[in-house]
Design goal:
Elements: H1 2-10, H2 14-24, H3 27-34, H4 41-51, E1 53-55, E2 70-72, E3 75-77, E4 81-83, H5 89-92, H6 96-107, E5 110-113, H7 121-127, E6 133-136, H8 141-155, E7 160-163, H9 173-178, H10 180-185, H11 195-199, H12 202-210, E8 217-222, E9 226-228, H13 230-239, H14 247-253, E10 258-263, H15 266-274, E11 279-282, H16 296-307, E12 312-315, H17 322-330, E13 335-338, H18 340-349, H19 351-372, E14 385-387
Parallel strand pairs: 4-5, 4-13, 5-6, 6-7, 7-10, 10-11, 11-12, 12-13
Antiparallel strand pairs: 1-14, 2-3, 8-9
Helix pairs in contact: 2-18, 6-7, 6-19, 7-8, 15-16, 17-19, 18-19
Bound molecules: flavin mononucleotide (FMN).
């Protein structure tokens, strides 16, 4: 335990956490987190887009303290960061979504719980001392979605996030090569190819077995079939997905703010607002869905220009440093979501690993503002960056 915490505190950036996660997890689980769709072109573009933005600092301006606080859809945040919805966190570490929610609320950042969570949404809410948002897939159909929304409303989830980029699951070649689907669905025999990979990670295996093995999906419940079994999850996700025609039905049930996640064009931003969204997330799902779409950061200005002040604009995909957060805000985002950055931390060390990932992003963010000569995240403007023309 002491060894783990010293390794975590010696990690200096998210790449170090990624490396720790790579060592701690069986390859099949690590590649589930780390991989992208098809040739992983969009996954790489997400990072390249941040590299194409350079800073224009105001030098020699002392900024003794920086104000990192912001407010997103009525939720006060200690910095402009929310933990993105990430499915199957409990497979990475038994603490899973509960550990993430605890770390997020202690740090004063937002947390969005994925539909594909191994912990009950009620337990995740109880673990958090802050606000938690709920991300909706229509897996299991409207009956399952209604069950989840009613439960989420009952226990105080404030905001609903609908992911629109997943009409089918992206083809993640690293996952397919490793056999993720067989691992989740198959019987004992079909798991034999994974035995050597898994046995060489005894600490992960012991935790996984003590936690009861692969978790079912307690937030996907239908009257006929009850809780969705994990082995049926992939098929169920392929069968039913959100389409715009579901929006009036959802809005009749969910009276709080609705966020549309997965917007990449001005047209979809407009459509989201026409359907009553209070915010949009410019996102390509971290390069895990349609390979070949541009980096989120690249299309952020187009969406901001379309939305103007009619809704809030968030972004994700590729956030690995506090300076990335600064760049996204300069280009018009109100706040960002990170997915892998905290998932690596969780896999490396449970809740302390998530806390460490948030701390890294916060320290970077504050230092970056000071070096830019900017006292507050709310004072960041386009004039602090210049964007290289796209190749
Ligand atoms: C392992 C993994 C699982 C994910 N599961 C979900 C999910 O269940 N729902 C969802 O809306 N997005 C999901 N996402 C996408 C994230 O919410 C987010 O858009 C993405 O991770 C951002 O890119 P980043 O990982 O580079 O920060 C997942 C991402 C990862 C890496």
């Amino acid at each position: 335990m002491a060894l783990i915490s010293s390794r975590i505190s010696r990690a200096v950036n998210i790449e170090d956490l990624c490396e720790l996660a790579r060592r701690r997890l069986p390859r099949i689980v690590f590649n589930y987190i780390d991989g992208g769709a098809e040739a992983e072109w969009t996954l790489r573009e997400n990072r390249r887009a941040f590299d194409a933005v350079t800073f224009r600092p105001s030098q020699a301006i002392a900024v003794p303290t920086c104000d990192l606080r912001t407010r997103v859809l009525g939720t006060d945040l200690s910095m402009p960061l929310l933990l993105a919805p990430v499915g199957y966190l409990r497979v990475m570490h038994p603490g899973g979504e509960i550990a993430a929610a605890r770390a997020a609320s202690k740090a004063g950042v937002g947390m969005i719980l994925s539909t594909v969570s191994g912990h009950r949404l009620e337990d995740v809410k109880t673990a958090s001392t802050g606000q938690v948002w709920y991300q909706l897939y229509l897996t299991g159909g409207r009956a399952a979605a209604e069950n989840a929304m009613r439960r989420a409303i009952d226990v105080g989830y404030t905001v609903l996030v609908i992911t629109i980029d997943s009409t089918v699951i992206g083809h993640r070649e690293r996952e397919s090569r490793d056999g993720m689907e067989q691992f989740l669905r198959g019987n004992l025999w079909s798991k034999i190819p994974f035995v050597s990979d898994i046995l060489t990670h005894p600490r992960w295996l012991a935790r996984f077995l003590l936690d009861g093995g692969l978790p079912d999906m307690p937030n996907i419940v239908t009257p006929e079939r009850g809780v969705l079994r994990v082995r049926d999850a992939h098929t169920a996700m392929k069968r039913q997905a959100f389409s715009w025609s579901d929006m009036p039905w959802i809005r009749a049930l969910w009276k709080g703010p609705i966020v549309i996640k997965g917007v990449l064009t001005a047209e979809d931003a407009r459509r989201s607002l026409d359907h009553g969204a209070a915010a949009v997330v410019v996102s390509n799902h971290g390069g895990r869905q349609l390979d070949g779409v541009p980096a989120s950061l690249q299309v952020l200005p187009e969406v901001v220009e379309e939305v103007k002040d009619r809704a809030e604009v968030l972004m994700d995909s590729g956030i690995r440093r506090g300076s990335d957060i600064v760049k996204a805000i300069c280009l018009g985002a109100r706040a960002v979501l990170c997915g892998r950055s905290y998932a690596y931390g969780l896999a490396a060390a449970g809740e302390p690993g998530v806390t460490r990932s948030i701390e890294m992003l916060r320290n970077d963010l504050e230092r970056c503002l000071k070096l830019l000569g900017c006292p507050s995240v709310n004072a960041l403007t386009r004039s602090y960056v210049s964007v290289a023309p796209h190749r």
